[in-house]
Amino acid sequence: MAAIEKDFRRSVVYQIYVKSFCDSDGDGVGDLPGITGKLDYLARLGVDYLWLTPFYPSPQRDGGYDISDYRAVDPVYGTMDDFDELVAQAHKREIGIMLDMVLCHTSCDHEWFQRALAGDERYRAYYILRDGRGSSGPGDPGQPPTNWDCAFGGSAWKWEPRLGKWYLHLHDVSQPDLDWTNPEVREACADVVRFWKERGVDGFRFDVVNLISKPEVFEDDLSGQGRSLFADGPHVHEYLRELVARAGIDGMMTVGEMASTTLENCVRYTRPEDHELSMSFSFHHLKVDYAAGKKWELAEPDIGQLRSIFRTWQEGMQAGGGWNALFWDNHDQPRAVTRFGGRAGVGERGGSWERVGKMLAVCDFLMKGTPYVYQGDELGMVNPGYDSIEQFRDVESRNYYQIMLEMGKGPAEALHVVNERSRDNGRAPMQWSSAPAAGFTSGEPWIGIPASARLVNAEAEVGVEGSMFEFYRSLVKLRHASDVIATGEVRFLDAGEEAPKVIAYERTLGDERLVVACSFADAPCRLADLGVEKYEVVLGNYDDAPAPGALRPYEAVVWRS
């Protein structure tokens, strides 16, 4: 089956969290036929690629990112025939399929790890195994080899008596890290990618791929670097180039999720001449509401810091010849509409919900890079606001709720933090209608339906003038049609001292100039001179024209020379 090939600079990617998108058989879990049944909706939106989160067999200890078989479809999501039908039907609509490749770690249920547990030396060498500190000999675990923490709390090491070693898991304890220093591991991973490419897949997203190369020497983290200690390791670029070459995917649509990365490394990951990836995800801009840099400590978003991060990454990637993936939301993030002020008037015209949702879309879509729409962004979905910790399914959220209680926070405070930060905010079911279970399923959904589904849903927005969905459609069309947005230069502008919460930038190509100004403030502000007095207004998120030299609360305006 011929792959879909599109210019990634003009493309828009739509991310689907398969478990929560659409359930076709009433078991409460989204599935592949459910996606196939919604392809006309996605074609109407105008997106070019669908990135599907893992649907492979998994014990689901980490939402499917703990994979027990890379080459099969978990029966809860359908069959391989269902997958092939999805690819064929998407291709008929000129939509490409991108798959999530989780090659940093496997599930502990994977055959490779099970064979290691059974004593097979070949497969023991697939994983990172170490003796404990202070061990007196075989059978005595001693202490963990280093003081590294895993992403979900607790030690990154687990003692396994059947191995007689500690194994490294930078994520959940059920996700042992693969040892990429082993050439056989690297070939096995390339073979997985080839398998799906040969089934007609058009692109790949590589999960935490900058963590595949570990430090040369395993030492305690004495500087508080956390994941930065093992991000962008000494052989990561070598391993990526080898993977791309062996799998035969050079030139295909590819993106890497880069944890705790640097600008310099992301330039290298994405420069065409380095033959690694098309683009990279970085997450620095989604930490501007972390108090003291800590995810589970809340703060108001620092818009000055957000502007600085965008400027650094946009202008820095441009200078180095790299390429950004542009996004606010994904399956690991709370909803940006809630995060950046859209808590009022949810589902109603004119509330901060609508203003913030459209403003964020403008800010993101018109920068230099490839925009990613996460399912429900185009509807303005918000955090669900669950009432108890029992309603959460995410292992990280449940772990940190207990950690916060142990630190002295009360249950109400800990629940509030989880509601603001949980990955389940992005994993609540897609809101198709105001019907029971939001039209997601005819059964009992695997996780609770947000109350906002009564007003925020596809049925209420598709084809409705001025709706969030139609606003997103117009942005996709603009992205496809505009050369200056696809390939023009980017430069950030000074919006002035009276606009401290405004992010402004220009895109230029030849004689054409596009100026974008987005206010993250809940009050009006005055703008510095952006040189747009004689420009036409191309797009805005209010129904009437903007006032000269000013922005209203959460207003976004796009001018063109």
From TrEMBL:
GO terms for biological process: oligosaccharide catabolic process. GO terms for molecular function: alpha,alpha-phosphotrehalase activity; alpha-amylase activity. Residues 15-427 form the Glycosyl hydrolase family 13 catalytic domain. Its EC number is 3.2.1.93. Keywords: Glycosidase, Hydrolase. Gene3D superfamilies: Glycosidases, Golgi alpha-mannosidase II, Oligo-1,6-glucosidase, Domain 2. It is an enzyme of class 3 (hydrolase). Transmembrane segments: none annotated. Pfam families: Alpha-amylase. NCBIfam families: PRK10933.1. Belongs to the glycosyl hydrolase 13 family. This is Alpha,alpha-phosphotrehalase.
